[in-house]
Amino acid sequence: MLSAFTARPLIELKPRDKSRIESVLAYGDRVLAGLNNGSLRIYRVNEKEGYKDGGGGGGEEHIDDGEGRENGNAETHTDGGGDVKAKTDLLREIERFSRYKIEQLAYIKESKLLISLAGGYVSIHDLQTYELQEQLVRTKGASTFAVTSNIVNDVETGVPSIVSRLAVAVKRRILFWSWRDMELESETREMTVVSGVKSLAWVSGTKLVAGLSSSFVMIDIQTGAVTDLAGPGSIGGLPGQDAGGSRLSGVGVASMSYIGIGGSAPKPLATRLKEGQVLLAKDINTHFIDLEGNSLGRRQVPWSHAPVDVGYSYPFLLALHDSSKGVLEVRNPETLSLLQSVSLPAATLMHIPQPNISLAHAGKGFLVASDRVVWRMEALSYDTQIDALVEKGYLDEAISLLDMLEDALLRDKPSRLRQIKLEKAQNLFAQRKYQDSLDLFTEISAPPEVVIRLYPRLIAGDLSIEDDTATESETGSPTDGQSKQLNGTHNNADANGSDGSSSPKVIAQAPSVASLLRAKADDGSDAGSIRGKNTVELPGEKRLVGKDLKTAVWRLQGYLAGVRRRFQRVLNPDGSLKTEYMQMNVTTDDELAVSVMRLLGISPDDTDYDLSDMLLEKARLVDTTLFRAHMYATPSLAGSLFRIANFCDPNVVMEKLDETGRHNDLIEFLYGKKMHRQALELLRKFGQAEETDGEDKEDEGEAKDDTVSSQLRGPKRTVGYLQNLAPDQIDLILEFAEWPLRADPDMGMEIFLADTENAETLPRQRVLEFLEGIDRLLAVRYLEHVIGELNDMTPALHQRLLVLYLDCLHGHKSGETKFTGETEYAEWRGKFLEMLKTSSQYSPAKMLDRLDRDDPECYEPRAIVFSKMGQHRQALEIYVFKLEDYSKAEEYCNQVHLAEDIGAAQVIPSQRTAPTDAAEAQPSIYLTLLSLYLSPPHGHEPQYGPALDILARHGSRLPANSALELIPETLPVRELEFYFTGRIRAANSVFNESRIVAQLEQVQNVKTQAQLLTGEGPDRRATRSRHVTITEQRICGVCHKRLGSSVINIFPEYVFFVFFFFF
């Protein structure tokens, strides 16, 4: 599947050389080989011009014309002439380096030391001269050792230093040596474990994992703590591992050979993976833990044979299998998928340089060795590996590899990762895994058109990619490519991407023979081994229909709702861009802004684009598609989309809603889009169809439409719609308000009389003119509402209401205005008179011109108008001589007199006027009435009876001289007795009142004087009898000057100041 590494021989022993390679070590351009005869050979690696050291990053290419096979027998990559092979020169051979075979080699770069294990002892040599410096005597019987170097900050000073540590296993003991900044520390630590140590592996700068005969332990060299690890073995699996427990419980295909033939037990292995993870392996069982020894709950590595060695070369997990054949397996440490199998005949050991203090990928160039050959595993560039995985359809592996690699090692990692996830989401969609697909689309902020295009025209509209080919596929006739795959002819070349098929590819499971031997078969999940998986096109790939389509649409609704929420955060309801997002770009740190830019499909290289227009266009696409999805899968949710701000395409929505008969939703949509004319025309169409649609219909479709539109019949819905229109739509309101007013005046008037802000702020003059054109009674009703309830003081409206009242009253006589009876007529007349009395905003002169002086119906209105004009005599003449209603005349005088008294009291509230005053500021209204009774105009007789009643009831309010002059001499005095009695009593009342007031004022004066002179009363400080003592210590409260003999001023609160401060 992948050619991550290429094996290139570095060292090949000649056939006549009887020695065997027991250990290898590489550093710089040197390769050291420890032989079984105790000799040490030092080689120098020479690079040819045609070869560039990969290291996996920077996009460097290897000159390579071949690929490793995926069947477990990878061939060596060479060209015809072999010029690109790395070549080594033997620089030196130290024959007596050791008396025994050199089992293990390592070096400490900072201290320039070479560490070797031979003959059961660990020895330290000079790295440059290879001379023995010291043999660690305490290591007698050593079986293995491990070296690590790390940068450690000093606890006290914080100064960083390089600390190298050497751990040596001697039976049950582990010995530790340390070098700090190239200096060997004098202290040597020793720890004892429960059984013999078989392997050692540093997992951090201070923690070591030791593989024992029966278990694993983790040792913290700082605290000395030894932690038992629940490692893999016959005890069974751990939580989170395969249900098969320990997979054959340690008695697998490989382990049976140990028991049956009497071979040694498998060596416990351990290696550190990425930061914070450690792999423990024994036989075919594995266990993943963290640096604290806690299980990570991951499933086991699906090995079919026990590895002889494991390692980690960033970012791959390596396992060397079957020393008889020599197979190096390269796996993804996250998914545990087998990526590459490299055939290395008789290979028995691996040497992976420790990354220590450099970057994590510094250990890329590792070595694999047999007893005769040393290979260097050279890596292709990571970009090439990613491209190969994508080309062959292994998208999960490509995504996993991208996640593990550092950004610096790849070209534009974020964009590549997003593109691969996009392709994976499309494949998941083709596999009918709609939820997973749409979740991935959401995660990468895929442009909405990419997702919508996957759906048929019913949902995607013009974006749909349905064509004749898709139609043929739906009929069930497979294409040539499908027939070939279904007949089992999908060969290995097809897996390498050479099938030439352009149809969508789906990852299908094709189990290999090896997988059948495993205790737990591969379940085909993304995390399982992908070996044997090929890219095929399933025969069931048809257009989405039926249940599949509905399920896919349900998932699409969630995706579109999420996109819509993101667009709403940057767009105003009117489609304009919010201020804080006007400078939005791809490189911003705002997560929302980056997501929106990805949804728009804008890359960092794009500079020429209109952000607002693009956002509006995409928002329209999203909302329109969401509407189609609602209408197909969940029609009940379509209405909720119209009640909020949306950017749906009106043509699509109108066509669909009209087609399905959902006229109520259509009206709400048109209102939300401010397409009021279209909505009102539809409402008028359905509202006026009450009679015609009530007949029986034979057409079933028409009957259905009639049932749906019955909710819209009549003016009610139109009235409600017009009430919600703003005043600036007055032309539209008046245009469509006419038919509701004519159909149902009471309901239609709610457009203008409703207790809403829109109704109260309509242009009243235009509404009035409109209503007058329909019916004067409606205009009167509107004016009564505006003036009576809204308290409008506009003179023109008051004048118009009075004119309309008068016209309606006159029209009753002529038959133009029809009242239900005399009661209603009297009610209207009463409202007219009340308006004349109470309103002060109309023009009395204009109203007087409209009132016929000879019409008896206008007598009283004229009297009221004269009163408004201040012409009281003319008003009283109408009451006395034309109406001959003396009670109304007297009531009129009472009202005028009361108004005059209130005005006088406001000016001089304490003045009491005596009725005997000889002169007044203005003649009394009662005197005017009395003069009309006793001295009527020409043609009228005196009215002595009403005159005497006025004298009796209001004589005290009449000036005596003027009243007596009007009384005729022939009138008997006995009839005036009540007048004189009333006058005398009124005069006495005024006199007595004045005496009482004078006495009260005198008492108040005496009380005030006593308080000032003697201090009587509740406030003793406000008297003249108080005193203040001035001493030499008293100072002024303002200038702080000693008072002495200065003139002072004392306030009522006994605060005193130097007197000159008050001038």
UniProtKB/TrEMBL annotation:
The protein's topology relative to the membrane is:
Peripheral membrane protein
Q: Which InterPro entries match?
A: Clathrin_H-chain/VPS_repeat, CNH_dom, Vam6/VPS39/TRAP1, VPS39/TGF_beta_rcpt-assoc_1, VPS39/TGFA1_Znf, WD40_repeat_dom_sf
Q: What is its main location?
A: membrane
Q: Coiled-coil stretches, from where to where?
A: none
Q: Which UniProt keywords apply?
A: Membrane
Q: Name one GO biological process term.
A: intracellular protein transport
State the compartments where it is located. Answer: Endomembrane system
Keyword Membrane belongs to the record? yes
Region Disordered: start-end pairs: 51-84, 469-506, 687-711
Domain CNH span(s) in chain numbering: 18-357
A Pfam family of this chain = CNH
User: From start to end residue, where is composition biased (Acidic residues)?
Assistant: 690-703
The answer to whether UniProt assigns keyword Secreted to this entry is no
> Ranges of Basic and acidic residues compositional bias?
59-84
GO-annotated cellular components = endomembrane system; fungal-type vacuole membrane
Q: Where is the composition biased (Polar residues)?
A: 472-504
Ranges of the CHCR repeats in the UniProt entry: 755-920
Q: State the family named in the UniProt similarity comment for this chain.
A: Belongs to the VAM6/VPS39 family.
Q: What is this protein called?
A: CNH domain-containing protein
Q: Which organism is this protein's natural source? A: Penicilliopsis zonata CBS 506.65
